[in-house]
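Rotation project, supervised by the postdoc (A.L.). Task for the rotation student: set up a whole-complex structure prediction and record inputs and outputs verbatim in this book. Inputs entered:
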Amino acid sequence: MASETHDRPDTTEGPVLEVTGLRKVFEGRHGAQTVAVAGADFTLSAGECLAVVGESGSGKSTLARSVLRLIEPTAGSVVYRGTDLVGLDKRALRRTRRHLQMIFQDPYASLHPRQTVYRLISEPWRVHRDLMPDRPRDRVAELLDQVGMPASAIDAHPAQLSGGQRQRVSIARALGLKPDVLVLDEPVSALDVSIQAQVITLLMELQQELGLSYLFISHDLALVRLVATRVAVMYRGEFVEFGPTSEIFERPQAEYTRALLSASPALAEFGSGA
Amino acid sequence: MAIDSKGARAVLLPDATVSRTGARLTLHRLLHSPSALISSGWLTLLVLVAVILPPLVETAANRQDLSLRLLPPFSLDNGPMFILGADGLGRPELLQLIVGTRTSLLVAASAVAIAAVIGFAIGLISGYFGGWVDEVLMRIADIMHTIPSLLLALAVLYVLQPSIANLIIVLAITRIPVYLRVARAQALELRERVFVESSRAVGAGDWRILRTDLAPMVLPTIRTVAMLEVASVLLAAAGLSFLGIGLQRPDVDWGMMVADGRPYLATAWWVTVFPGLVIVLTALAANLLSNWLRAAEDPSQAARFIRRPRMRKAAR
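Outputs recorded:
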């Protein structure tokens, strides 16, 4: 399955997303500064899965949120199909950003506890009224089916769903806006291992079916090796290594990458077998 | 990796879990709690009395008959309306209480409702947006808190005409900070939650987030606080009337009745005790009910009332 992902062409029609010099500095009290992301540059092509790996605190999540302007980047540009998200006013940002959606790490926190599945999935259409389907309930059922959920879940509350099911609902909610780019912030790390595989498989199927581009934030190297076309290794806010997945895993250049690889028990085994 | 991505479909969610929700669930729990049931029964009775009876008995309630002055209770010699005795001007105590119920409940309920709505809205906005708006609003709330509400009410009602409307406004204004603080504290916490970020990611603006994400989460707390506040506003209103600046005759409420009976306390206890008793019982009932409501609506305490839905375990 891993080889299948790697064989997919890297580019079809030029980059969907071009990130240049993206930087985020948090201002603390008394002028203290924390550089969370120190200038990230990368492009994301259609149908590609770019993984960003690194230890916790390396700035991966801040990068993901800055790309979507969920937190305001300090400097840099995020160009989606010719439109720079940085500097857009609220209205324009809302219109452009619907093509870039985010899946959050913890599905227990990212779904509103008092809304039903129907409400959760249809809510984005209340914001983007032009996307509101003629029969929203039917469309929600369709989306649920697409993410492998039974239609009977439509009136359930998140509390009645398992973690895997909740993450499927999050995915359906994002898909309802017909995005090109999904930013996946550790999408399965809060789930049981057996469920992780199911959700990852679903994500990979959806990517193929819909031609989505993924910005995949993760600390799970085994997972990254499986899904990513290219990998960026992040350490203290900087990309210390960036290249095709096989390259990074087989001939790691940076010291930090090697340390990271050897620290992963699953990969240590992989390595000796290959 | 031969795991089917549609694996979740294999386990269907049991349909029964979505059956009992909202009001029906609350009712179901209520039937299993004696103190809450009795409290709500008493409050319901009062509301019914306040709505139905006053127009029918108002004239009789205010008819003075000096020959029946301070008539002792528990005697039917002068008809059932004198079962609770008569006050210093020979007015039937029972009918006075009935008319007073309407005024007291009207004042308490309106003041609480006005304060809750305003405090809820301002608190949400203040907590969500933060910044200088929050600073200013909270300082105003601080100032309002340091002024004793009774004193403020005294001053305002002394300047304005004492009337039911003014009494409601004064009581409402003095109670706004209570809701404001509660709503603000929750909004402060909720705005950092991931589901808010998720709403922002799908394009929701601030007002939509306030309306659809925050408000439904804060509302149950506000409702509980409001219930609790009914008791204290009731007491505050009674206190103001007792001091003689709340209402003026011919309007009557429980506090005024207590005040009227004070000179006769040594000789005719019933003129004071019956309205006092009604005040105590009502405040107690409101307190008990709000306590129960808070526990019943808290998911972490819900197990005390009913079995949780079992779906989570079954559906993986």
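Student's summary: The beta strands of chain A are 15-27, 33-45, 49-53, 75-80, 83-84, 100-103, 181-185, 213-218, 230-235, 238-244.
Supervisor addendum: Chain A touches chain B through 52 residues (CB under 8 Å).
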